[in-house]
Amino acid sequence: MFRRAKFYLIIFAIVLVNFLTLDFLLIDVEKTALIVAIGIDKVEDGYEVTAQIAVPEATNQSTKSNESVIYAKGDTLYDAVSEIGNRTGWYPKLSFCNLIILGNSVFEENVMGVVDFFVRSYKVEDSSILCASEKSAKELLMSISPLDNISSFALSKIFVRDHNNASAILTTTVRDFSILYYSKSKSGLMPQVKMIKTEDKGDNTSSASSLTSNSGAGGNEAEKNTPVVYDAETSLLFYNGYKVGELNGDECLFYSMFEKGANDAYFSLPVTDDDGNGGTALLSIKKANSSLKLVKEEGTFKLKGELKLRIKISDTDFPQSMKEIATIGRLNDKNLKKAENYVKEKLSDAFERSKNLNCDLFETTEMLYRYHNGDFDDYKDGFLKNLTCDFSVTCQNYI
Amino acid sequence: MKLSSSLKENVKNISEQISADDIIFYSFTAGNLSAVAIYAEDLSDKVMIGKQVVKPMQEADKLNDYNDFKAVVNLPETEELFTLSDCVQKVLAGDGVILVDQIPVGLSVATRKPASRAVTEPPTASILKGPREGFVENAQVNMSLVRQRIKTPDLKYEKLTVGEISKTTVGIVYIKGVANQKTVDELREKISKICVDGVIDSSYIIKSISNRKTSMFKQVGSTEKPDIFSSKLLEGRVGIIVDGSPIALTVPFILLEDFQSSEDYYINTYRANFSRILRVIAVIISIMLPAFFVAAQLFHLQFIPLAFLLTIVGSIKGIPLSPSVEMFVTLLIFEILNEASIRMPRYVGIAMSVVGALVLGETAVNAGMVSTPTIMIIALSGICFYAVPDLNETLSVLRIMFLTIAGFMGGYGIILLSAGLITYLCAFDSFGTPYMSPYSPLNLNDMQDGILMGFYAEQTMRPEFLKSKNKRRKRFD
Amino acid sequence: MTNTKRLSVRQLCFIIITLFSVSKFYVLPAFVSGLSKEAGWMATSVNFALDYLILFACLIAVKNTDKTLYESSTEIFGKPLTNLTFILYAVYFIIKAFVPLLEQKNTISLTFYDSQPTLLIFMPFFIVAFYIAKKGVNAFSRSVEILLWVFALALLIIFALSIPAGKYQALLPFSQPPSRVFKGFYGNLIWFGDPVIVLFLGDYLTEKKKLIKKCTISFIISAVITISLIVVFYAIFDSIAERQYYAPIKMSKYSITLSNIGRLDYLGSILFSLISIYSITLYLLLATEIVNKVFKFYNNNFFVPLAITTIEALLIFFFQNEIFTSIAFVQKYFQPFFIVMAYLLPLVFTIATVIWKNKRRQNVQAC
Predict the structure, then answer these.
(1) CA-CA distance, B464 to B443, in Å (whole number)?
(2) By three-state DSSP, how is residue A173 classified?
(3) B285 or A127: which carries more pLDDT confidence?
(4) pLDDT for position A53
(5) DSSP label at A78?
(6) What is the 3-state secondary structure (H, E, C) of B162-174?
(7) Which of these CATH numbers, 1.20.1740.10, 1.10.3720.10, 1.10.260.40, 3.30.70.20, describes C9-355?
């Protein structure tokens, strides 16, 4: 028994010695660069990666978020990421990277050349949000936002998935984008982020109400330090990994309501009330139902979509009578029809535009494969080009 | 050596064997013969010997043989003694021994009056609701506390003497027909085979009757409370009462018993269930939390939410020790504080806690020796540690083991050690009962009093793992 | 039969539910998705159906005899042939453990650790495996009873977090060419064939009441769990499922809940890793028992498990980074061997047992 106790002691001693002196490629947390966002730009001789690192001090300082941004170049993305480690002595840790920004230069080529790095790697989560920058990714990550000291945190806020319920932003992740790319449709969508400068330079407490719409890259240092907020209401369309076009805000909104998770939204529409007063009204809409079917009629396929919306007036830029205000924003038949036509038009525009760009926005080829598998081989070539759509939109008042 | 007919010779022989100042040899005349009453001054009741033994003997007309003088003694518990060693044993046990000239037989009279403290609430098992009595160091008192609760002729109390020198009384207590006779026999055999100089406390018995002598896990149940002891006997367990120890033992023992508290049966079942779940969670936290924290910091940063990770990184800046060593040292300090505060006099202990918790902890953080999360983790683990006081000894060793393996191998080490631990626990039995009962082997009936307990009315059967012949314990008609 | 070698029908059922399914959770979903695309779950269902046939045969063989497998086999086929077959089974179980071992090693090192850990971190697995194998069938089966709760918790975590993230139309169309299903079925075979284990564990059964019924239900549960996992997995990853190895850790990270409470899904994966240790060790335990039966070595409770775990450790040492090459190698060179050991021999044995029993009955009646 005593011998056994000695044996246990020896084992424990060995483990303890290892415990106290261990060095199994161990990485000290202090020497780890916790990358929270990554920006990728194509440069002449490869890729430039801009990594935003969450440094604890940054949360206590007001305007020094740029200090936590580092960049490196490499022939491939892997090279560039490794280079970050070589340059800083930090071990780049990508598992906290929740945002991947692709700079506009990346879209000159097949973006999957970049995105597949994240599909391959076990060190990056493919649940990371993928977005496009109107300018370079570096510029976007280096920007200063009044919403958060770390620009990527501010950016992430607009992509929060819950936000999707009431937003036109078509959030996509590495996984979602890759699934669509490798699907029969070979198409994809990616929100495009634009920087909007605020008037209130350097004041981090300023609210979103102090925005101005003037955009464009700043020329001097002062302009560079101008706080910005972000707009991602437009989305880029991709086919086979190549950027082919974009959807505007309203198209994104109704597409999002139709196909994605958005349930609540607002849009503006010129209306006239029963008394003949007219102006622009802000309409609040709520999705009641939607369906999309691919039907075969007389040997040709047709995309039939149905969208039912509940609608009400939230605000108008003209005075309304108390009766109208009291009826909780009811729209008259004329305005309902107008709203229906508007939504239908936007959806049809989105379909036609994407169709003309060869981008299978509504994943119809995939639908052909899934639901009409027997016809797939016969129809797959040129399927999208020959496809017509018929959207039916019904708007109803809440009460 | 047999007693002789000569009183002088017997007294001489006995006094040679126990030549101590507290052994009294009181000479008197019994009828027409000389007699001596021998007793231990502090252990025996002098008044009783005088009134019930000596006085009647002095007043007797004549005493011719053993039966004569036994007849005049006014005590129910007497015994014939034929050898010197028996006489010596009886005297040392606190009985009085009467020797009469010309009669080669001694008479022992039960006049024990050992020093004993009052029946109070044990400090290790205080409760809000329920009986507050606790066992004391006297086996007879302890047995009387049990008899108060179980008034049945089937409650058996078998006395055995253990200890070559100490000659300690060890009693096996069980309810005939309820306890498994095989367990009783096995226990009796094991206790009879114990060959030690002395049994100072019941823990000596635990170490001797355990199947796995090197195991860190308890294999014998222990309690200071007669209500718990009695309820375990009623379930079908076998109890052991050791003279001189306030801790009574029960076998077979299963791991789950440590998670059960007597109060669980006295309070609302919902609350009792909640408490039991809390105890399980507390045990897991106390063992695993420091280990997981170190493993996450060293190897698996992604396990920690980013916001918390940033707090950690912020707080460990400038700490000279690696996370594993830091945790190990802090734990070591905690264990030292714990050890010292238990051993210290109570008033110093309070001061010690203040110094330890406030001064040392706060200063260490301020001085940049250890980080705040580490102190918090150790404190949390330390608090959880006391949710199941009976498991303390095991938990402290397990905590160190898990911490060491986590620092060495990370999360996979924790997984491997858990696998080893599960197999180890599942592999062993306590007196034929699987240690992990009723979860392994699974028994739905016994699970009614498992981590989750059923309502009192539903628990109609005795635990099956105790293999009692009398399976039903209550009937609600 | 000693005290350390007891098994109840319930414990056998728990082994079927937990260990038969967990070994198929890591690489198989991605692998079968690569071969059969959306028909992966169909291919796996066919595998399960075939496995059930073997399980049924094994259960009949176990139920029909009071003797141990070794004794029955010796009686029917003679000692030399029995010894040879048993040795082959020991080899089979050692090779069978190799792929899940590599899977576990890679899961641990690629998904749990930030930097590529050294082999030293994985090697203590063999100490634990040796310990479990040394403790014998009784301790093992009792451990599985505890693991069932762990398994249930892990499943709950993984499914609760992953089911909402799936797009289940990805499983369409249901009409799939048989060749595609067969491709997946054949590729899957190295992860299947577990029912033969029942033949060996049958020796330790203390009672056989409702054996077939209970084991059938358990097998169905195991199959449903595995197929459900593959279904959810494919619904989440669709066209990129092929690349998503180590499924449990991949599929449950998309829940919104995680952003609030941290990576809870890791807990599920950790628990599955714990169960995997037992599922791998079961093969080593059986190999140990087989060698002990054939060769009555001195102190066989220590040296035999030691030797077997050492062999396995050496295999891992030499092929540590070659998981996919190793899987391809095993499939290319050992698939026929696997088919013979896992499917043909149990069938042959069952048929022989039934014939032998009938023959004996006829002889007794003739007498």
Answers:
(1) 8
(2) strand
(3) B285
(4) 85
(5) H
(6) ECCCCCEEEEEEE
(7) 1.20.1740.10
Q: How far is it between the farthest Cα atoms of chain B?
A: 98
Return the number of other C-beta atoms located less than 10 Å from residue C355's C-beta.
Answer: 11
Flag whether pLDDT at C341 surpasses 50. Answer: yes
Instruction: Inspect the interface and report whether the beta carbons of A182 and C239 lie closer than 8 Å.
Output: yes
- Token pair belonging to B419: 């696998």
Same structural domain, A94 and A233: yes
Residues of A in contact with B407 (CB under 8 A): 19, 22
Taking Cα atoms as reference points, which of C353, C161, C153, C174 lies closest to residue C270? C153
CA distance C304 to C290: 10
* Helical ranges in chain C per DSSP H: 9-14, 20-22, 28-36, 40-63, 69-77, 79-106, 119-122, 124-162, 178-188, 196-201, 211-237, 247-251, 257-261, 265-294, 300-318, 323-339, 345-366
Number of C-beta neighbours around residue B107 at 10 A: 26
- Domain C-terminal end among A247, A266, A295: A247
E strand or H helix that includes residue A133: strand A129-133
Q: Partners for A (CB, 8 Å, 3+ pairs)?
A: B, C
Euclidean distance between CA atoms A253 and C358, whole angstroms? 75
pLDDT digits (tens, 9 = 90+) for B218-250: 899 999 999 999 999 999 999 999 999 999 999
Scanning every residue of chain B, which has its alpha carbon at the shortest distance from the alpha carbon of A23? Answer: B408
CA dist list (Å): C6 to A132, C1, C2, C14, C135: 63, 8, 8, 14, 12
Domains held by chain A: number: 2
Same domain as A239, residue A298: no
Query: Which amino acid is residue B261, in one-letter code?
Result: S
- B347: exposed, middle or buried (C-beta count within 10 Å: 0-12, 13-18, 19+)? exposed
The length of chain C, given as a count of residues: 367
Domain boundary among A222, A247, A272: A247
Instruction: Give the residues across from A131 on adjacent strands.
Output: A101
Contacts of C172 in chain A (CB under 8 A): 370-371, 373
Chains contacting B (3+ CB pairs below 8 angstroms): A, C
What is the pLDDT, as a whole number, of residue A119? 85
What is the average pLDDT score of chain A? Answer: 79
Distance of CA C240 to the CA centre of its chain: 26
Q: Are residues A68 and A214 in the same domain?
A: yes
State whether A209 and A278 are in the same domain: no
Task: Give the span between the Cα atoms of A394 and A36, in whole angstroms.
Answer: 43
Domain contains A216: yes
CATH of the domain at A319: 3.30.300
Q: Of chain A residues 23-52, which have a CB less than 8 A from chain B?
A: 26, 28-30, 32, 34, 36
User: In angstroms, how far is CA A126 from the centroid of its own chain?
Assistant: 14
CA separation for the pair C95, C311 (Å, rounded): 10
CA distance B406 to B381: 16
Closest by alpha carbon to A363, among C169, C154, B459? C169
Laid out side by side, the sheet with B238-242 consists of B155-162, B168-175, B238-242, B248-251, B221-223
Q: What is the pTM of this model?
A: 0.87
ipTM: 0.94
Averaged over B376-385, what is the pLDDT? Answer: 90
Cβ–Cβ under 8 Å, residues A58 and A78? no
Residue with tokens 């999957």: A112
Pair (A337, A240) in one structural domain: no
Interatomic CA distance for residues A303 and A351, integer angstroms: 10
The domain containing residue A280 runs over which residues?
253-399
**C260 close contact with A: CB closer than 8 A:** no
A284 with A238, same domain?
A: no
- Nearest partner of C159 among C107, C230, C242, C245, judged by Cα: C230
Q: Tell whether C124 lies on the interface with A, counting CB pairs under 8 A.
A: no
**A19 domain-assigned:** no
